[in-house]
Amino acid sequence: MMKRKREEKNECMDIVWQTPANPPLPQDYIFRNGIRLVRPYYFEFIAHVKNRWAGKTIVDLFAEEFKGRPYEYYVSAVKCGRIQVDGEMVPVSYVVKSSQKISHFLHRHEPPVMACEVSILQKESDVLTVCKPASVPVHPCGQYRKNTVVGILQAEHGLGPLFPIHRLDRLVSGLLIIARNATKADSFRQEIEAGLVKKQYIAKVVGEFPADELIVDANIDYNAREGRSTAEVRDSAKGKVSSTKFTRISSNGTHSIVLCEPVTGRTHQIRVHLQYSGHPIANDMLYISEQPADRSIYGSTADRSARISDVSLASNFGEKLPDECRETSNEDFSLDPMCTNCPNLAPKGYDDDEEDAAEIYFAWALQTNTTTTLYPTIQRITLWLIPSYLYAMQVFLSELCSEGKNVKMRHFL
């Protein structure tokens, strides 16, 4: 941490700046109505000037690349030293050069996520197997740093450093393997690249999915600006070659439970290929129609990721969270005179008081020595990653556990 004293808006503030080297702590989190929020904190963002940024004024660079704050904020931030170049204050007209270091000191507000436990299923000296809850990113990205799987494991279990070896989309729940050192991470990645790891997803989709096995071969073109992928015909010059195998598990005519096995690994591949097949994931607001979802309406927060209102998060997860995490009433934090998000806990555009965030379905698993059965009450994608060297079991998925099999129930979420 860096402690700096500077004058801002005629106020003398004694600020402790956090950097990526500072791990999250248990007291950094606030729990409210089934939501996990992060107590706002001061943070130094560091970036190096890209070639396409070179030649722009420091204010124009930030205003064009980071549109979450008004132009006037960046002018004030440069004038008071909240934005610096190579550790020095610069005028608002300063033109940046390639490879220069830019620091942005700001009051950081992270988006909320569901207050679900990151369950540790298996812990070894060099690897962790955890169940990642939906709505929580795997690692720091975008606005998320502490509200991530890695951050929560560091704060609640004192684990670190951690090296995720594969990724799950933020809205995906399921098994996640994390290495505890760089050597193990490299070893795992080599096995994944060699095709030794089999990934299977379960999705609840709209409509009656075909009874026969379906293989979708459609190129995927990802638009980073929109955060959305599109499927193209196989011989299209656009996008990357992509293939996914789908098998229907059950259907009631209105919705279907589908086993999804990606042959390639592209951004949003399963979601896009299901949309392309005419059977989008039931509550995937980004791909449930041909038109891009309005993120200002649907958002990308926990409360907007699944608006399903039959199961209370408190009843499902209140017993699993540590006592100090059930509800946190002390929401004191320092208000920053320059912060455009204060006095709210969450950033603008995220409603940290919305109770719909506490209502969602989750999948249950039943397990024998050789069989895993997944109930069809799935309202989102769920990943079961089954590397042959880690789990000596075959995967069988059915609508109900029937035929009087002797099974042992295990709650993975």
TrEMBL record:
The active site is at 169. Its EC number is 5.4.99.-. Signal peptide: none annotated. Keywords: Isomerase, RNA-binding. It comes from the Eukaryota. SUPFAM superfamilies: Pseudouridine synthase. It holds the Pfam family PseudoU_synth_2. GO terms for biological process: enzyme-directed rRNA pseudouridine synthesis. GO terms for molecular function: pseudouridine synthase activity; RNA binding. PANTHER family: MITOCHONDRIAL RNA PSEUDOURIDINE SYNTHASE (PTHR21600), PSEUDOURIDYLATE SYNTHASE RPUSD2 (PTHR21600:SF40). Responsible for synthesis of pseudouridine from uracil. This is Pseudouridine synthase.
